[in-house]
Amino acid sequence: MNMLPIRRAILSVTDKSGLEDFARFLQEQGVELVSTGGTRKKLVQAGLKVRSVSDVTGFPEILGGRVKTLHPHVHAGILADKDDPAHMRTLKDLRLAPFDLICVNLYNFAEAVRQTLEDKQAVEQIDIGGPTMLRASAKNFHSVAVIPDPAHYAECMQEMKANGGSLSLEFRKRMAVATFALTSEYDRMITEYLSRP
User: DSSP labels for the chain?
Assistant: First the structure.
């Protein structure tokens, strides 16, 4: 799929800079917004219509927020190959809806390290759901766009404006590369922290 129409997006970010403008742009383009906890709260306060991930999954956030997006209603929607009729039939049969754009950035583990927190506190800042969504989206860049950092919002909006609300395969592949670089660096930072004596 070369041009991907953006109709449904997940927004789940720690760094909320530029988020409101980006989300408002998406909504004005007719994109359905789905979000988690603090991200959703900020967007609703800004007057945007946003579904909660819990509404999509039919399951509440549990374990103090450790489990919220790790669910087939999220990941089947991210990992489905839109060019594969069998994948799309499976979504339809199971009443699952595909996602087109995943905008996620990660818990700030570097800040936890700088604060010299105890291990038990520091590991709470290791993001699990975020990297899982990022990696799934980057893997499936033929069918999904991933936006891993606010630095990419402007280019994403420009690309959608130029393409009638769609994102090109070339842009999606570049975002996938940026995403895998980011998750690799995140894992390296955690590895170095946990390897300390």
Answer: --EEE--EEEEE-S--TTHHHHHHHHHHTTPEEEE-HHHHHHHHHTT---EEHHHHHTS--BGGGTBSS-SHHHHHHHH--TT-HHHHHHHHHTT----SEEEE----HHHHHHTT--HHHHGGG--SHHHHHHHHHHHTTTT-EEE-SGGGHHHHHHHHHHTTTEEEHHHHHHHHHHHHHHHHHHHHHHHHHHT--
Structure tokens at 184: 């690799």
Q: Report how far residue 153's alpha carbon sits from residue 159's, in angstroms, rounded to the nearest whole number.
A: 10
C-alpha torsion sign, points 157, 101, 12, 188? negative
Burial of 28 (0-12, 13-18, 19+ CB in 10 A): exposed
Contact 53, 129 (CB under 8 A): no
Token output for 90: 């499976």
Task: Return phi, psi of residue 80, to 5°.
Answer: -65, 130
Angstrom distance (rounded) from CA 95 to CA 98: 10
Q: What is the pLDDT of residues 19-64, one digit of tens each?
A: 999 999 999 999 999 998 889 999 999 999 999 988 888 777 777 7
Task: Look up the pTM and report it.
Answer: 0.90
Q: Quick one: tokens of 147? A: 């936006």
